[in-house]
């Protein structure tokens, strides 16, 4: 994260990209079971959709479109956390630590997008 003075700047576009990238790194290391293959496919799709919809929100043609895209980003962050809960990592320490960290990030992204929605809808 870039810092300016004492205040940290949070680049949400970069943060969502890093989340999707890190999810893909986790998926590459998961045991190849039928369930993991299916769940990982869903996880990869949801994690990438968070940032893609955020980018689209920033190019929105109207406030209504902006709010809808942010809500989709929030929904995809929630969905990512769900799929992260389902993937099986065979209790490998490093993978479990990574998975827990990604679940925390998905929760934080959900909260951030929720805050953006509340602020945007409150300013109506």
Summarize the structure.
The protein is mainly alpha-helical and 124 residues long.
List the helices and strands and how they pair.
Elements (H helix, E strand, L loop, with lengths): L2 E2 L2 E2 L3 H18 L4 H25 L4 H24 L6 H30 L2
Antiparallel strand pairs: 1-2
Structure, explained:
- The structure is a single chain.
- With 124 residues, this protein is mainly alpha-helical.
- The chain has one domain (11-122): de novo design (two linked rop proteins) (Up-down Bundle), CATH 1.20.1440.
- Helices cover 78% and strands 3% of the residues.
- It has four helices and two strands, in the order ββαααα.
- The protein has helices at 12-29, 34-58, 63-86, 93-122; strands spanning 3-4, 7-8.
- A hairpin with a 2-residue loop joins β1 and β2.
- α1 runs antiparallel to α2 (34-58) and α2 runs antiparallel to α3 (63-86).
- The relative contact order is 0.15.
- The model is unreliable at 1-9 (pLDDT under 50).
The CATH homologous superfamily: 23S rRNA-intervening sequence
The rounded distance between the terminal residues' Cα atoms is 31 Å
Mean pLDDT: 90
DSSP helical segment count? 4
Number of domains: 1
CATH class descriptor name: Mainly Alpha
Largest sheet: 2 strands, antiparallel
């Amino acid at each position: 994260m870039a810092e300016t003075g004492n205040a940290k700047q949070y680049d949400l576009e970069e943060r969502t990209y890093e989340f999707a990238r890190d999810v893909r790194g986790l998926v590459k290391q998961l045991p190849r079971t039928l369930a993991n293959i299916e769940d990982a496919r869903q996880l990869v799709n949801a994690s990438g959709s968070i940032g893609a919809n955020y980018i689209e929100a920033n190019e929105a043609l109207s406030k209504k479109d902006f709010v809808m895209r942010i809500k989709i980003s929030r929904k995809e962050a929630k969905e990512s956390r769900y799929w992260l809960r389902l993937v099986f990592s065979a209790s490998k320490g490093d993978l479990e630590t990574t998975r827990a960290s990604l679940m925390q990030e998905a929760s934080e992204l959900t909260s951030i997008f929720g805050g953006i929605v509340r602020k945007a809808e409150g300013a109506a």
